[in-house]
Amino acid sequence: MRSIQELLSDFPNCVSRGLSSEEVERSKQQFGLNRLTPLPREPLWKQFVGRFDEPIIRILLAASLLKIVVDLFLGSLLWGAIGFSLSLLVVALVFFPRFKALQPVLCFVLAAILVLVSSLIGHLSFEGLAIMVAVILATGVAFFSEWKSAREFDLLNARKDSQKCRTIRNGEIGIVASEDTYVGDLIEIHAGDEIPADGRVVQAQDLRINQSLLTGESEPVAKIDGTYLEDAEGTEHPACVYRGTQVVEGVGRVLITDVGDMTMIGQIARQLSLVGSSLDEESALVRVHRKLTVQKHQTPLQRKLSHLADLISKLGYAAAVLIFLAMLIRGYLMGEWKLSFAGADLRASLAAILEYFVYMVVVVVVAVPEGLPMSVSVSLALAMRKMTRANCHVRQLMACETIGSVSVICSDKTGTITLNEMRVDHVWTPESTNQPSERIVLNAALNSTAHLDPAAGDPSIIGSSTEGALLLWLKENQVDYRKVREEHAVLYQTHFDSQRKDMRSVVRLEGVVHLMIKGAPEMLLAASNRVRSSQGEILELTPALMERIERSLLADSQRSMRTLAFAHTIANTDPSDESFYRNLASGELSNLIFDGYAAIRDPIRPDVSEAIRQCRVAGIEVKMITGDNPETARAIGQEIGLLEAESLLMTSEQFGAASNEQLKAQLPKLRILARAKPQDKLRMVRLLQEMQQVVAVTGDGTNDAPALKQADVGLAMGRTGTEVAKEASNIVLLDDSFSSIVQSIHWGRALYENIQRFLQFQLTINVSALILALLGPFLGVKPPFTVLQLLWINVIMDTFAAIALCSERPRPGLMKCKPIHREANILTRAMRWRILGTAGFFVVAMLILLVGMKYDHLFYRSQDNPSNFFGEFTRRQVAIFFTTYVMFQLWNQLNCRSLAGNESAFYRLFQNPFFLGISAMTLGVQISIINYGGAIFDVEPLSGLEWLLIVVGTASVLLFGEILRRVVASSGASRE
User: Fold this and answer.
1) d(Cα 2, Cα 226) in Å, to the nearest integer?
2) Which ranges does the record mark as transmembrane (predicted)?
3) Cβ(734)–Cβ(400) under 8 Å?
4) 53 classed as catalytic
5) Cβ(62)–Cβ(54) under 8 Å?
6) Which domains does the chain have, with CATH numbers?
7) Which pLDDT belongs to residue 673?
8) Catalytic residue among 71, 193, 412, 700
C-alpha cells in the first residue's frame, strides 16, 4: 500500500482538493483501472464434456454401444469381436479413478468409430447411430442451456460489484462509479458505504469499518486520521481501509492508494485460480469468492422438481422393466426368440432380446423427465431478464421464484411510494413569514452532509434527499451553502439517528459554541422552552404559541407534507476539546430555542395507487413503514388508497408497547406504521413469518439490513440505498418504485405457472407413452414405435416443449389469484385431473388405432412396403401411427398453455411468436421425417388426404381439453 507522502509527491493537492482532471488521466495511465480481473472459468470444452457424465447419457451410450456391437456381429464376426473387446476396455476404465471421468466421452468416440466401421462393411447400425444423435442433441441442448445461464450469471456478477461513491476532484464533490476511481482520488465515505478501493484515512469522525470480509471478525474496527501516522499497512492499522469492507458508523475521507488487482481483495482473488476446490469455509478466499460472485444455489422450486423428477424416474425404471418382461414373454410366445443354442436360433434370439433391451432403455429415456431442469433454467432466465427490464436487478436467482409467493409487502414511503423529489414548500417561523431565518439558514447549511452536484445543469443532490431539499431552498433564496460552510467551522457532528429522530452539529458562531439540531418537530418542541424570531428576538414558548405551532404542523401534515424542525442551544463554555463537543452533541436535549420548521413536499408516484389496487386484488397485503408523523402518514395512506374503513395505523411507540400475541391479532388490519424505527421493521417481518406469510421488505439504510436479510425477499433501493442495504438484499429496485415490486411479483408468478405448463405437458406424455408401451404386448401387439421415433418424441417432450411453454408471458388474470404458498404442491389437483384425463384420452385413441391396424387392417394396402421392424404392419401404417401420436402432442401443447378453467388454449396465442415458431419447426421436422425419413424411421410419405385426416382427427384433443378444463373447474378443483 502506497504511503500518503508517495501520493503527495505525484499529486500535490490530492489530500486537500483531490485530483485535477489532468491528474485523473495521468493516474489512469500510470496505475491502471479499478477493475478486477474476472475469476477463472472452466473452459467451454470441459463444460461440454461434463455433460456426458449425466446418468441418462451414460444409459444411452451403453445402449448405443451394445446395439452397434451386436449389429457388427451380425455383419462380421471379426469386427464384432473387435468392437466387443474395445467396449470391455472402455467399461473397465470405471475401475481406474484417473480415467473414470473420461469413460463416457471415450464410449461416445468408440461408438462413433464403430458406426463408421459398420457402415463400411455394409451393415450400418441405424438405431445405434440414432441413439448417438440423441446423445449429441441432449448434451448439446443441456450445454447450450448452461452456457446461456452462465452468461446471465456473468451479467449479474458484473452488476453486483458496481456501485457509486462520493469523489472530490478539483475541490468539488461529485458522484462517480466505483470502477472510475483511481490512485490518488480523495473519496468521502459515510455509514452504509462500501469502500471502492484500498486507501488511507485522512479525515475521520467516529469512523468504524466492518472488515469481516478479510478478517472473519464481525466486530467493527475504529479508523482514525492517518495523515501523521507511520506508513505501515494491514487490517489492524488504524488508518488503512480496504476494498469490499463496509462503513458501519461515522464519516471520513480516504485517499486511494491501490486499485483493481493491486488491492488486497484483488490479490486474494488471484489466488483463487491457484488453489483447489477444497477450501476452508471460513477462509478469506471463500469469503472473497462469495463477495465477487452470485452464488448458484438450487432454488426451493428446483429442489422440489428434482425430487419429483427422481420419483418419476423410479416409476419409469419400474415400468421399463415390466415392459421388457412383457416383450420377453410375448416374443417367446410369438416365436421371436427360442431357448435354443443352435447357431442361427441363438443369433436370432440374441438379436430379438437385444431389441427388447434397447426398447426398454429408450422407454427409460422417455420416462426420465430430464427436461424439468431445463424448464426451470429457461423460466428463471426469462423471469430475470423481464424483471431487469422492469427495473429490478436480481442479486439472487432464488428471489425470482420466491417473489411470486409474496403475500405481504412492507414498504418504505420515501422514494418507493413517493418520487423522492423533495422540495421545501414553506418555512414556518413565529412571525409566520416565509423569509429565511438566519438560524434556520445556518442549520440547513452546516448541520448537513449533503451536497449539490455543480456538474449537473439542474443541480442533483448528493446525499440525503431531505437535506438536499434544504440546500435547494437555500439556493432559491440566493444563499450559497458552500460559502456558509467555508465561513463556519463544524466542530463535531452526529448523523441522523433513527432512534432520536434528529441530527446534531456543534459549530462556533461569532466565537460562541452552538449546538444545532434538526429533526422531528414533536421531539424538538418537547425539549424547547423558547423560540427565536426571524429578527433574532428570543421569546418564551407559551402554551398559546405552542398550540399555534401544533395547529400549523397538523395542517401541513394533513396536506401530506413531512415537517422538519430546527432548534439550537448555546454552550456556556468553550474548552476547545473534542470530548466536550462529543458530549454536548450526544447529551439529552433540554432548554432548546425553537427556530421554526420546514414543510417539505414529496410528490406521490402517479402509478402507486393502481399498483396498490392490484396488490389488493392479488391477495397481497401492503404495509407502509415510515418515519413520518402519524398525520402525514395517514394523509398519504388515504391519498394512495392504502387505508380502508377498518385499517389500522400505529406509531412506533404503540407498536413497541404491544405484545407479540396482541400484534399478531392486529397485523392483518395494520396498514401504516408511523415514526417507525429499524427494529420495528425487523420485528414486524418476524411476526408475519410466524403467521406463515411470505414477506417482501424494502429498505435503503444500513439499519434496514437485518430486516432485509430476515425477509423472504429483501428489496433494496437502487438510487438512494446504501451499499450495506444492497448487500443484504435479494433484489435491488433500480428506480426505487413500488410499481416495480408489483411487476416483479407478476413475473415471479408467471415463472411458476410456466413450469406448471411444461410439467402438465410432460407428465401427460410420460403417462400415455408408458401405458401404451406396457399394454401393447399384453394385447398381442407392440406399439409400432421405433427407437428413433421414441427418441424424436422425447426431443419434442424434453427440449422444444420446455422452451416453448416456458416462454409464455404472464396472463392478465394472474394478479387476480391469491398467492401460492411456496411449500404448496406444484402439481395441483386440477393439473392432476387434466394430466390423467388427457393421458387416458391419448391411450384410448391410440389403442383403438393400434388394434384397428392390427386386426381390422385399418389403413392397410397390399402394395405398401412392409415395416422393417414390425412384421404385422406396413411402413404406411407405422407412419400414420407415429404421426398421429406426434400431432396429439403438438395439439396438447396448445392445451397446456391454459391453466385456468375459463381460458381457451388459443387465448393470446399470437402474442407468443416463440411458441408458434417452435411448434411450426416441430411440425416441419415431422413432415420431413415422414417424407424423407424412409428406411431410417421405418416410414413412407403420406398423402395430403391422410395428413388432413390426422391433423383434423388429433385436433379433437383440443375440444376434449376445453371440456375437461371446465369440468375440472366446475368440480371445485383449482390452483392449490
Assistant:
1) 13
2) 79-97, 104-122, 128-145, 311-333, 356-383, 758-779, 785-806, 835-853, 873-892, 913-935, 947-968
3) no
4) no
5) no
6) 4-33+163-292 (2.70.150.10), 44-158 (no CATH), 371-385+750-970 (1.20.1110.10), 392-418+605-736 (3.40.50.1000), 423-600 (3.40.1110.10)
7) 96
8) 412
